[in-house]
Amino acid sequence: MQIAQNSVAAFHYTLTDDEGQVIDSSEGREPLTYLHGSGQIVPGLEKQMEGRAVGDKFIADVSPEEGYGVHHAELMQEVPREAFQGVTDIQPGMQFQGRGPQGEINVTVTKVENDKVFIDGNHPLAGKTLHFAIEITDLRAATEEELAHGHVHGAGGHHH
Ligand SMILES: [Zn+2]
Questions:
Q1: CATH: 2.40.10.330, 2.30.30.60, 3.40.190.10, 3.10.450.40. Which one for 73-120?
Q2: What angle (nearest 5°) sits at the alpha carbon of residue 150, between those of residues 128 and 30?
Q3: Which listed site, 32, 44, 85, 150, has its alpha carbon 20 to 30 Å from 13?
Q4: How far is the CA of 146 from the centre of ligand 1 (A)?
Q5: How many whole angstroms from 159 Cα to the centroid of ligand 1?
Q6: Highest CATH level, class, for 7-68+126-149
């Protein structure tokens, strides 16, 4: 059996950046389970999962365009502190929901200067080339119910 549209696959991963720094890893945790073809993992990785089988180990290099997107300078803004009503202590690293051109976006505070707050609406991994070390651990066909819901049920997946 190979990974194809509507497969439910489980895999272990270690994600590193261009410098070899580990950004995220499933090591010591349950493998990640996803429904293939449903856009639950970044497009560049999903593409390279196609046709893989249990036991396959490989490196998937993913460009920003097929990862978390390119970095948009226009998503970095300076807003007055009054915009954060009810928040008394604004610190770099804090995250807020904001309104972007395409609806709700998450913004991260990058700097606070007097009454100015600098925010960044880019995904933290925007603009980065991603390097995934992948090991496929499990593979099966999705159930009718999973296909109807568009997500995985059961161990490692979604619970109702
Ligand atoms: Zn469901």
A1: 2.40.10.330
A2: 60
A3: 150
A4: 6
A5: 7
A6: alpha beta
